[in-house]
Amino acid sequence: MLAGMFFRDKSMGRRAIALSVAVFVLLLLEIGAVLYYSSVQKNYMTALQEKNIDAFYHGLWMVGAVIVFISPIIALHEYTSGMLKMTWRASLTRRFAGLYLAAPGYCEGNPFYRLTLTGEIDNPDQRICQDVQEFVGIAVHLAQDIVRTDCSCVSLAKGCETTAVSYYSVLDLFVESRTVLNIVSFAAILYSISPAACYGVLVYSISGTVIATKGFGPWLGFYQLARVKQEAGLRRGLRYDLIRVRENAESVAFFEGGEAEWSKFNTLFSSLLQTVYKSVLVTSGFGMFNRSFHWATFAVAPLLVGPAYLRGEVQFGVISQASMAFNIILGAMTLIMDKLESMTDVAVRVRRLEDLELSLRKCQNETQMSRKAGLAGVECIASSEPSSTDPAMLRFCELTLRTPPRAGILQQTLCHNLSFELVRDQSLLIVGESGIGKSSLLRAAAGLWTDGRGTLQLCERRKVFFMPQKPYMFLGSLRDQLLYPHVDESFVKDSDLEKALKQVNLGHLLEQHNLSESKEWASLLSLGQQQRINFARVLLRSDARMALIDEGTSACDPANEALLYELLGQRLCSYVSIGSLPSNASSPERTASEAGHLSPSSAGSPAHASVARNGGGTSAQAFSAAAADTLLVQSIPKGGRFWAFMVCNDPSVQYVSGKITSTLRAPWAAAQLVTELSD
Ligand SMILES: Nc1ncnc2c1ncn2[C@@H]1O[C@H](COP(=O)(O)OP(=O)(O)OP(=O)(O)O)[C@@H](O)[C@H]1O
């Protein structure tokens, strides 16, 4: 499958075929040249032995000439072989990375997220980088080894006549003879000498191969796979563990958690060592079997023909002839056995890469299914865009949302038949108890979570800006940070970037850093500064009309928070923001003092807006009641209609202010309130 992918690759397929042919031809040339060199060597040494001066100097010239001829062939063969490996690796790596990162033309959706979410594939990064490289390296060597031994076999047969064979030990003979043709022809020769020897070699080699593949193969594969997993695997992997420490270095340092991490590392490492130890035992056992098997052949052939010789039925030379035929057949029949370790290694890599391919394809299918959901009766959330005349920016229609499937973990239903819509110039605040499912609503809106039912409409995806709970700093320059994810937009002027930075109170960064300097921003900027970079990104997006923000100002001070939302309100038509329930929401004094007013500053911040609106009498109770649940508030900053969605576990909670348009029960009860603002 992996070779097929390479040769079918649109951009590299032809190159792949040309390189493979070149490697094959050069390999044949190299083998031919090496064999010719051996006969030149033989003549040279014979001339010396015979004290033939002319032949000696002629031999010397020939040695020099062959070296001059052979060296560039070897170099060219090495070069094309290296290029073949590089091209194959490039093709496979690009393909897997393209599928994983959802590059244009490869895949849609967010497979990298989906794989992380479901946890069904450990370390896709290791598979894409390391497994591909090792698979290609071993596979190319293995293929060349097989060709090399095939060709050596032909030459050996010839060598028997030309005495070049004298340069090979008998051991080399059977190791270097493989073709089907040889099996048949030498089996015929052996059969004519001794049918018993012919059957003997077949039984001997087949039983050896079966014992090796069935007895040792599975164990070699098992421990190889276990080793790869334990070295870098998810959760229990050694490298994964160290990467987590690096990524969370500050937190670990605050906790002085080095010792705890060391102890965990040590446990994982000891477990890895145990696997390595068992693997060494299996490899040694296999090595012992393999060696004894091959060494024993020296005795087996004479054993099968010897009695006939002792009875005087055949001449002594027949024993060596039979031995040679025996060894050649045996060499051909035990190819799998000789290459078992390399083959096991390739098989492990192939399996890991095939699993990755299957999972990536599954992610791709899920994305496509989500588009077709409803139409094809597929049980997942259907996503679409509202029509151009539809004023809706975001619409949930009878949405039932479940947590993603994960082996061994029960799926939770986070909301049931939830319906609401957000139209142009409306914004929404979502507040509520931690863990109740606020962020999950945004994940559904972004199409990241699709498990459930119902329909979700979001205005044109490229016009929506998502701000996740954890700010993400791209590896690149300050300019890249500000333009992320559109880092290639070189037409954006530096002055605009500087203006955006100044707007979010990050102008001072320009004094310390150049816009085009690449730095490790995630560790250079505070969390609040990173959140402000997020807002600067929105300000720079001329096409953005809506933002979905998950606790986007949680690390900012109140002044900056108010400023950021004010900027956002000026820049966008709508936004949805998730925030923790304001601590003062349930405080009657505080809410009462702000009753019925949306001051300009509070209008900019949905948190403030919600407090202000719900200070107006009975809806304050709703906020208080919602402290344990989730409340979704939708409001127009400068007054007008006010929408509130209460989603809670207690269906008995009553909301008296506004018109209740829908009530949902299990597993949540949801009440949708509509009220008029009275400025
Ligand atoms: N990747 C996941 N796989 C399965 N369940 C998850 C996953 N992420 C979150 N959950 C579960 O989904 C539920 C809702 O999580 P969510 O992050 O939406 O909560 P939240 O209300 O935003 O919480 P917080 O305010 O603490 O951020 C939680 O019970 C959580 O355990």
Whole-Å distance between the termini? 69 Å
> What value does the Rg take, in angstroms?
36 Å
Percent range for helical residues? Answer: 55-70%
Describe the global form: elongated
What fold name goes in the CATH topology slot of one domain? ABC transporter transmembrane region fold
CATH C-level name of one domain: Mainly Alpha
Bound molecules: adenosine-5'-triphosphate
Reading side by side through the largest sheet, how are the strands ordered?
6-9-10-4-11-12-14-13
CATH superfamily of one domain: ABC transporter type 1, transmembrane domain
* Individual helix count: 25
What's the architecture of one domain in CATH terms?
Up-down Bundle
User: Hey, roughly how much beta strand do the residues contain?
Assistant: 5-15%
- Annotation, overall tally of beta strands: 14
Structural class: alpha/beta
Reported for the largest beta sheet, the result is: 8 strands, mixed
GO molecular function: ABC-type transporter activity; ATP binding; ATP hydrolysis activity
Keywords: ATP-binding, Membrane, Nucleotide-binding, Transmembrane, Transmembrane helix, Transport
Family: Belongs to the ABC transporter superfamily. ABCD family. Peroxisomal fatty acyl CoA transporter (TC 3.A.1.203) subfamily.
Pfam family, one: ABC_membrane_2
Detailed description of the structure:
- The chain is of the alpha/beta class and 679 residues long.
- Among the domains are: 169-372, ABC transporter transmembrane region fold, CATH 1.20.1560.10; 392-459 and 545-676, Rossmann fold, CATH 3.40.50; 474-536, no CATH class.
- Helix content is 60%, strand content 12%.
- It contains 25 helices and 14 strands.
- The strands form three sheets. Strands 6-9-10-4-11-12-14-13 form an eight-stranded mixed beta sheet, with helices on both faces.
- Helix 3 runs antiparallel to helix 5 (124-162), helix 8 runs antiparallel to helix 11 (258-310) and helix 8 (195-232) crosses helix 14 (340-372).
- The longest helix has 53 residues, at 258-310.
- The structure holds adenosine-5'-triphosphate.
- Residues 595-612 have a biased composition (Low complexity).
- The chain crosses the membrane at residues 56-76.
